[in-house]
Structure formats: structure tokens, C-alpha cells
Amino acid sequence: MRQRKSKNISGQGNLRFITDISLRRKIENSIETTSFLYLKRNEKSTSSGFAKEIRRAEILYAASIIEAVLIHLFKRRGESMSKTDYKDVVTLPSIYQSGSHPVVVARQVQIPKLGRELTLDSLLELFSKNGIIKHRLKV
């Protein structure tokens, strides 16, 4: 099996400040893919319809790079975000029920969001609210 040779993944590149190896790899792979897509889009043989689709993919990869950098910043600053969860859910007796959705009583608790729940949107909202990024960048 051939191994991929890349200085950046081993930590020798410009992204070595990102200490989370998997996050760094995600960024490096996204940059590499975006570069490839850019070159492919600018080839003379690429049709305008295909170029348009490539641009869409480039935008998605750029967003994933931004998201990964914000996750790095989130972890480095020791930030936290929470979400609402419901505990001890109890369905009320049938005399209180109406319609197709059950009526319940539950205890609402705040729990921390896990890594996979840190979306670009929620990170932008947090950093905008905290004054880390300008509000106009969030929009």
C-alpha cells in the first residue's frame, strides 16, 4: 500500500500551530482538494456547467476550512456551548391529551455540546456574540 507523502500532515507545514492532528489533517486535506478543484475549474477543457459545480464544491471546502479553524479557536480558548435536553419525561394521563402529539412534563437541563455538534453556524454565532469576530462576518 502506498503511503501519502505530505510534510504538512506530519506537522512540518504552516499549520503546525493547530495541535489537534485530526483537525490539522482535515484543514490540509480541504486546502489540497480546494486547490485541485480550482486548477480543474480553470482548465480550458472544463465546461461552464461543470465549472459552476466545481465552484460550489470549492465554497463547501472553504466553509469546512473556516469551521475547522473556528473549532481550533474554540478549543484553544476553552470555550463551551450548551444545548437543551429533557430529562425525566413523563406523558400526562389521557384526560390531558388532545391532538396527535402527546402532552408531557419534563425537566429541562443544559448539557455541553459535543465536538460533532459544533457547527459553523453555532461557532460564528458564539464568536460574533463574544466580539471575537465582527457581526458582518457572521452574516
What would you note in describing this structure?
The protein is α+β, with helices and mostly antiparallel strands and 139 residues long. It folds into two domains: 7-80 and 118-139, no CATH class; 82-117, no CATH class. It contains four helices and two strands, in the order ααββαα. It has helices spanning 21-41, 48-76, 120-129, 135-138, and strands at 82-91, 104-112. The protein has a two-stranded antiparallel sheet with strand order 1-2. Helix 1 (21-41) packs antiparallel against helix 2. The termini are far apart.
List keywords for this structure.
single chain, 139 residues, alpha+beta, 2 domains, 4 helices, disordered N terminus
Task: Record the SSE blueprint.
Elements lengths: L20 H21 L6 H29 L5 E10 L12 E9 L7 H10 L5 H4 L1
Antiparallel strand pairs: 1-2
Inertia-based shape: elongated
**First-last Cα distance:** 45 Å
Estimated share of beta-strand residues = 5-15%
Number of helices: 4
Please state the structural category. alpha+beta
Domains counted in the coordinates: how many? 2
Task: Output mean pLDDT.
Answer: 87
Biggest sheet layout:
2 strands, antiparallel
Order of strands, widest sheet: 1-2
Summarize the entry for a quick read.
With 139 residues, this protein is of the alpha+beta class. The protein contains four helices and two strands.
